[in-house]
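Example S7 (structure tokens).
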């Protein structure tokens, strides 16, 4: 079962996509190639599974033959690569990394003007700082992925909708009750169930969930490696913060919002990677690939259709104009033909699902919740009220979106179009129709991260250009010292002692087990207990206001427990779940008899029970 589960994961993430890319002879970097393979594999699998299920041929035997043939052709196609020495691959990777790092400092070394040198050193510092933050975000996402391994679906929609549909696909049928929700994600999950011949084991399907956000980070990181400016790397961190804030609980839960955002962003990433110097064939292939990924986004969640419908306009505005002789009329005709043909095929493929469901719903074979999620759920709120409520729901990130408007002149033209065509319009659509849940805005997060990162870079560049007129290279070190002292004095006014103490207290109240601390503070506040004495091994003495509350005890034997609980100053017990069995039995009996009152339980940090001692009689 483990081997077949791994083979299914390879089928979902790599095998069909790698074969198609090899067949098309696509030239790309490692990250770019693997991202393309992932996106293509998802789309190809969906199409194959839909056709096989419609013909009642989606069985373990069929899937086994498909994976075996793909592995055979893949090994044949990449046999030259398999013979490469490991040392040669490591050497090439190291050489590419060192060349990239050397390129970062070339401008600094080449500059003769001292002011320009200082400015470039400042840029380099910003770049390295943003790079470190981006790497930190990627490592954080890898940790999320590691912690997700071996877990099962445990959230409402993932269990009752998405995974239930995946099980239906695995049973060789097209799920009948999906509404307008597209099925690329559950269809791919079903591959793990069919391969293992067991739809109860969810570990492999669930392991896919965090990959989509990880790949969004990697795509932004790859753009940063190309651009060598800190705005792209800053975009990774911004995207992490926004996504964690509004969809943090869904990153590893198998919801379709982040996968749709990944595929939509992959379509735009493909267009951004097209260079003016690329040959005609590369241009045309990229247009087809971008259309494929936009189609996959539309087949993952309805929100992805937004990018698919915009795809021809985005391709026209984002792709760099080719150099001569590519401006010839014949090339322009071919380019438009490939663009509209790829878009038409993608649109037909997406409509094949939505049209199929429209007919099913019209015939009463399925139902739609469109009216509920766009109107009924808002309970009569006007559109103005919806927009106001949605904006305040975004908190500080609402201002981040507004920041993009004055930052537009600071962005390159093609990134400006991403703000005007994707970020702002989709945010307004979300506010008006889907703001009942912030995860519905997930499609925008990578685009917001990218444009906000580049916008912040533009602001800093503007400040650096203004700073040049101050001629910092001529400043005396004495002035810098005085400026530093003034800065420290200003910061001391901004952060007075009482503010620092208050912040320390707030954070100190969250140490160890925050949920247990919160319950403890809530009870003591409601009860009005001023000087509680708590028998426990939980480090209560480190909590603000409870420094003298703890009587330390490790709950090892009943005799010492009874002796301590009869002390007149001890009125509470905070007992861990792993207390000795004789103590646990005695406590249970005393709770039933009314001598003790169980106030609450907390399952975090080993698990504790908070008990009030009412009667100390032996």
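Recovered sequence:
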């Amino acid at each position: 079962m483990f081997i077949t589960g791994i083979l299914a994961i390879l089928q979902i993430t790599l095998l069909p996509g790698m074969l198609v890319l090899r067949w098309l002879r696509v030239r790309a970097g490692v990250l770019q190639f693997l991202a393309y393979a992932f996106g293509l594999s998802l789309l190809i699998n969906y199409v194959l599974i839909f056709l096989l299920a419609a013909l009642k041929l989606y069985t373990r035997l069929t899937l086994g033959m498909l994976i075996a043939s793909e592995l055979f052709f893949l090994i044949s196609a990449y046999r030259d690569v398999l013979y490469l020495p490991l040392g040669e691959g490591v050497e090439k990777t190291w050489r590419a990394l060192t060349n990239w790092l050397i390129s970062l400092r070339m401008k600094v070394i080449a500059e003769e003007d001292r002011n320009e040198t200082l400015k470039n050193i400042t840029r380099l510092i910003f770049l390295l700082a943003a790079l470190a933050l981006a790497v930190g975000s990627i490592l954080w996402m890898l940790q999320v992925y590691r912690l997700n391994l071996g877990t099962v679906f445990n959230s409402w929609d993932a269990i009752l909708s998405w995974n239930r549909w995946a099980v239906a696909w695995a049973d060789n049928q097209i799920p009948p009750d999906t509404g307008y929700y597209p099925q690329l994600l559950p269809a791919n999950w079903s591959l793990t169930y069919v391969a293992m011949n067991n739809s109860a084991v969810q570990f492999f399907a669930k392991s896919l969930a965090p990959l989509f956000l990880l790949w969004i980070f990697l795509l932004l990181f790859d753009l940063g490696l190309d651009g060598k400016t800190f705005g792209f790397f800053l975009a990774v961190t911004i995207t992490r913060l926004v996504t964690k804030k509004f969809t943090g609980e869904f990153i590893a839960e198998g919801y379709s919002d982040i996968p749709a955002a990944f595929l939509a962003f992959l379509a735009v990433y493909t267009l951004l990677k097209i260079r003016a110097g690329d040959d005609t064939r590369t241009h045309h292939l990229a247009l087809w690939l971008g259309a494929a990924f936009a189609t996959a986004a539309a087949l993952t969640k309805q929100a992805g259709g937004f990018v698919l419908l915009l795809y021809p306009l985005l391709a026209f505005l984002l792709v760099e104009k080719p150099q001569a002789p590519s401006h010839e009329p014949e090339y322009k005709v071919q380019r438009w033909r490939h663009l509209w043909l790829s878009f038409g095929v993608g649109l037909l493929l997406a409509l094949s699902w939505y049209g199929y469901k429209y007919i099913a719903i019209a015939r009463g074979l399925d139902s739609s919740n469109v009216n509920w999620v766009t109107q009924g759920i808002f309970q009569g709120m006007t559109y103005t009220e919806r927009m106001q409520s949605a904006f305040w729901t975004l908190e500080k990130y609402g201002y981040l979106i507004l920041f993009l408007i004055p930052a537009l002149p600071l962005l390159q033209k093609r990134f400006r179009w991403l703000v005007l065509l994707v970020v702002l319009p989709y945010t307004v659509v979300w506010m008006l129709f889907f703001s009942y849940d912030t995860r519905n805005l997930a499609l925008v997060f990578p685009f917001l991260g990218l444009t906000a990162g580049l916008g912040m870079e533009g602001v800093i560049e503007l400040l650096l250009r203004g700073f040049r007129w101050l001629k910092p290279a001529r400043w005396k070190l004495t002035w810098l010292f005085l400026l530093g002292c003034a800065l420290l004095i200003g910061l001391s006014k901004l952060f007075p002692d009482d503010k620092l103490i208050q912040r320390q207290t707030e954070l100190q109240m969250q140490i160890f087990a925050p949920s247990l601390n919160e319950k403890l503070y809530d009870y003591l506040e409601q009860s009005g207990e001023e000087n509680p004495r708590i028998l426990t091994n939980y480090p209560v003495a480190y909590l603000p206001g409870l420094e003298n509350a703890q009587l330390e005890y490790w709950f090892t034997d009943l005799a010492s427990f009874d002796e301590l609980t009869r002390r007149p100053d001890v009125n509470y017990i905070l007992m861990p779940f792993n207390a000795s069995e004789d103590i646990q039995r005695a406590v249970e009996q005393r709770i039933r008899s009314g001598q003790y009152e169980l106030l609450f339980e907390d399952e975090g940090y080993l698990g504790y029970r908070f008990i009030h001692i009412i009667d100390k009689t032996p």
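Notes on this example. The longest helix spans residues 114-148.
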